[in-house]
Amino acid sequence: MADDKEKEGKELEVAELHRKIKEAFEVFDHEANDAVDVREIGTIVRSLGCCPSEGELHELIAEVEEEEPTGYIRYEKFLPVMTNILLEKRFRPIPEDTLLQAFEVLDPAKRGYLSKEELIKYMTEEGEPFSQEEMEEMLSAAIHPESNSIYYKDYLTMMVVDEN
């Protein structure tokens, strides 16, 4: 009996995930032909609460792309892969306290902010560097217009994904 309840719960969870994936996919399916431009996949995946790195995103695209790439991703190939990602809770966002610790490492004087120049340096010269477009997007959201600085505690509350 417990197995039936568990199975039923899993089926409901999968049905709910399928609904969410379909809704997110349809936003970008402009031709209503169950296909989206490959360049939209990152936006779709992120709208579902996942935060893959660029490398992970490229691996995901390779997994759902046709044998002969067409520039489009078909829903029928995307759905099972995305369902598994969500069930396995892959590409989860980094917790707020971890992000705060990272910012604090970059701010040894514990000022509570980084200058625009410092932020650009760290985000474009370290680790997996931001593209020009990503950097501009972050600056427009993160930099306080009057001080030209990022007050990272304020920025984190804006960034954090609500898990519910």
Molecular structure report:
By secondary structure, the protein is mainly alpha-helical. It has 8 helices and 4 strands. It has helices at 2-28, 41-47, 54-64, 75-87, 96-106, 116-125, 132-142, 152-159; strands at residues 35-37, 72-74, 114-115, 149-150. The strands form 2 sheets. Strands 1-2 form a two-stranded antiparallel ribbon. The longest helix has 27 residues, at 2-28. The chain is globular and about 55 Å long.
Biggest beta sheet attributes? 2 strands, antiparallel
Poorly predicted runs:
none
Helix content: 55-70%
Strand count? 4
**Number of contiguous helices:** 8
Give the SSE layout.
Blueprint: H1 2-28, E1 35-37, H2 41-47, H3 54-64, E2 72-74, H4 75-87, H5 96-106, E3 114-115, H6 116-125, H7 132-142, E4 149-150, H8 152-159
Antiparallel strand pairs: 1-2, 3-4
Helix pairs in contact: 1-4, 5-8
How do you describe this structure in short?
With 164 residues, the chain is mainly alpha-helical. The protein has eight helices and four strands; from the N terminus they run H-E-H-H-E-H-H-E-H-H-E-H.
Summary keywords:
single chain, 164 residues, mainly alpha, two-stranded antiparallel sheet, 8 helices, 4 strands, 60% helix, globular
